[in-house]
Amino acid sequence: MRLTDATMVNSFVPGSAPLSPEDEALLIRRTASMGPAYRLFYEQPLHVVRGEDVWLYGADGTKYLDAYNNVASVGHCHPHVVKAIARQAAELCTHTRYLTSQVVDYSERLIATLPAALQHAMFTCSGSEANDLALRIAHNFTSAEGVIVSENAYHGTTQHLISLSPSLGSGVSPSRTTRKIAAPLDGDGKKFAADVQSAIDDLAQNGIKICALLIDTIFTSDGVAADPPGFLEPAVNVVRKAGGVFIADEVQPGFGRTGSGLWCFNRHGVTPDIVTLGKPMGNGYPVAGLVIQPHIVEAFGATIRYFNTFGGNTVAMAAASAVLDVIENQKLVENAAKVGGVFAEALGGIKALGPVRAAGLMIAVDVLKDDGTPDPDRCLKIVNSLRNRGVLISASGITGHILKIRPPLTFGEDHVDLFMDRLNKVINSI
Ligand code: PMP
Q: Which label site among 5, 45, 119, 178 has the fewest CB atoms less than 10 Å from its CB?
């Protein structure tokens, strides 16, 4: 069954993939106990039992090169992060209604990595909650409802966010207050700003004022828009001039992935009003949140009491703090820039593939037919064949014709060599 993400399969059909009897039984139990809404990666689902650095291990002992996992961003089961979580869990796990040093220390540390205007941190358990909270605060600040997102955006699972996540496909009903605009995959910032203006005008004609431009600053699910740095600035100016705020969703590109500081918006020379964070923040421990300019949250904070039971708990803060330690100690931002550059260049040398768009270790490659049109079928074959040769990636873009590659930030040039060896074999075999 083809769904919006071309690499995911729906409920498992027994006998449809060469699986061990144990895995087949597990899949049947999974579908029966978890119901119809879940999806698995790959035509032949992968049963994993262990992770270490850039490697995932299958139930049958096969070792897979993980070139897709941006949650275990400092490497699967990094010992420093694991120890920090275990130590804190053994000492105290409690929430933000007590005075604890962990959440204050981390807030200060996080804020110090951001432009001076972003002064307050708030914590959640997921990127969805972070975006939902950001929108609540933005609505409160602007007294407006209109939100602009990119055409194939994904921002989360809440009722509000699904209408702002067109990549979820046909199951999502359009919202009166949302406008979708094409992602600037060609880097044309002027056109993107003009599209933002048209969306604002269209909202106004329908009696809706602009509240926010909500953008994944690397446009992950649209297929990665990376260059030229700075292309976002005109659009941000347009939205602010109309009274809206700029919410930078850094859930995907944040914490060093793009290789230019910790934050992707740095590449564009803009300071967001709100930055939302998630996925790699705790290297798999559920910790997320936002950082915000004080004047935007002032009225909200005066009237609304914010509490999130698990958000910002002491263990979450230990995990998040340990992740920052590793990024600093292992110089992972520098590594993302260096290895990402080598990787993108190697991918660019493959004649059978289309253009590469990349920043650090966030890499997208178009798979095109001879006439230059998208080739989602070949893209899907590449993803599944790589999986069968021990390399894990996925696909993105509206038609699912874009290879999405985003390995842990510890990826080295030897891993790039291995990846390219397998990719060349796959391409020659298709
Ligand atoms: N924003 C972006 C850009 C994302 O990619 C995601 C998750 N894929 C989210 C928000 C939502 O994060 P979570 O799954 O932690 O709710």
A: 119
